[in-house]
């Protein structure tokens, strides 16, 4: 198994025939591997410089003093906003807090994150380092909106590839119930990772599709059908796209939400500490009150309908302390 690289440019700018050809490529990758890398996607988010700026701002945020970051601490799965200290989250397939606690003790995740939702949510506000990093808020809100636009195009392509029509999901994903996650994997003693820890443990994502912008350090691995983990070697100027659990459920298992993890990158580096790694994930979700039930043309339903928000809160509740 390998993660395919797909040219998304013809879907954004091509003829109807070219759009349908790209949509088929996306559907084939989503229904077999569950992962793909898209190139020539930048026009959907406003240009290549948007990604470069995103990595600059991410690094600047994590360089803030710990007392500033702790003031922005993540508080609840319902809001899913704020700063998450290293060791607080343990991503996993486990669904009970007891299982997650045991895994956290045995093999913690060596990373810190900043979680950002839509900023005009009247119930769950974002938290910002207003004084210490005043330009961060405007940048993050702008990049959130850019990622939403790319996500809409990807969902349109998947719908077209499934024979549902390109606009099928439009009214079900327009409330922007997403999370922008900035990630920092700081240098740690290599022996801790080699001793069973991970930069991010084995897990699948919870929502519809994830967009992952990663640097060239590497470490992302995708599980194949035999249970082996295959490196998803970074390809410059691509975005990694993978299917989440809700979209697999929504598609009645036609599309695949694949287990993945972040480990030490392969290579000959024998230094005592790991290299720093940064990535930016955009976890796309359906509208929170959207009922997730079997899509047309996918056969007899395998799952009971579930509300998007109910499912996400349940999964997040087990993930954090």
TrEMBL record:
Top-level division of the source organism's lineage: Eukaryota
GO molecular function: dioxygenase activity; metal ion binding
Signal peptide residue numbers: none
Pfam families: 2OG-FeII_Oxy, DIOX_N
Keyword list, A-Z: Dioxygenase, Iron, Metal-binding, Oxidoreductase
Protein name per Swiss-Prot or TrEMBL: Thymine dioxygenase
InterPro entries associated with the record: DIOX_N, IPNS-like_FE2OG_OXY, IPNS-like_sf, Iron_ascorbate_oxido_reductase, Oxoglu/Fe-dep_dioxygenase_dom
Domain Fe2OG dioxygenase, residue spans: 176-286
Membership in a protein family: Belongs to the iron/ascorbate-dependent oxidoreductase family.
């Amino acid at each position: 198994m390998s993660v395919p690289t797909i040219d998304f440019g013809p879907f954004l700018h091509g003829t109807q025939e070219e759009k349908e050809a790209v949509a088929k490529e996306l559907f084939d990758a989503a229904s077999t591997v569950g992962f793909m890398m898209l190139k020539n996607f930048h026009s959907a988010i406003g240009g290549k410089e948007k990604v470069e700026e995103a990595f600059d701002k991410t690094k600047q945020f994590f360089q803030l003093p710990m007392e500033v970051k702790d003031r922005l601490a993540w508080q609840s799965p319902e809001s899913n906003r704020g700063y998450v200290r290293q060791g607080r989250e343990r991503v996993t397939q486990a669904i009970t807090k007891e299982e997650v606690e045991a895994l956290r003790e045995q093999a913690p995740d060596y990373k810190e994150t900043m979680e950002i939702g839509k900023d005009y949510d009247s119930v769950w506000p974002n938290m910002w380092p207003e004084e210490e990093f005043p330009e961060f808020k405007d940048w993050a809100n702008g990049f959130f909106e850019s990622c939403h636009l790319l996500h809409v195009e990807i969902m349109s392509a998947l719908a077209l590839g499934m024979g549902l029509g390109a606009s099928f999901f439009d009214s079900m994903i327009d409330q922007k119930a997403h999370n922008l996650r900035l990630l920092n994997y700081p240098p740690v003693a290599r022996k801790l990772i080699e001793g069973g820890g991970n930069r991010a443990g084995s897990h699948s994502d919870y929502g519809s599709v994830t967009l992952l912008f990663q640097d060239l350090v590497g470490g992302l691995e995708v599980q194949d059908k035999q249970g082996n983990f295959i490196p998803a070697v970074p390809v410059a100027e691509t975005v990694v796209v993978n299917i989440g659990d809700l979209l697999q459920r929504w598609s009645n298992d036609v599309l695949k939400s694949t287990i993945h993890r972040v480990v030490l990158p392969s290579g000959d580096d024998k230094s005592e500490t790991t290299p720093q790694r940064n990535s930016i994930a955009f976890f796309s979700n359906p509208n929170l009150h959207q009922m997730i039930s079997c899509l047309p043309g996918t056969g007899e339903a395998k799952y009971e309908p579930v509300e998007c928000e109910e499912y996400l809160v349940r999964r997040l509740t087990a993930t954090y302390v």
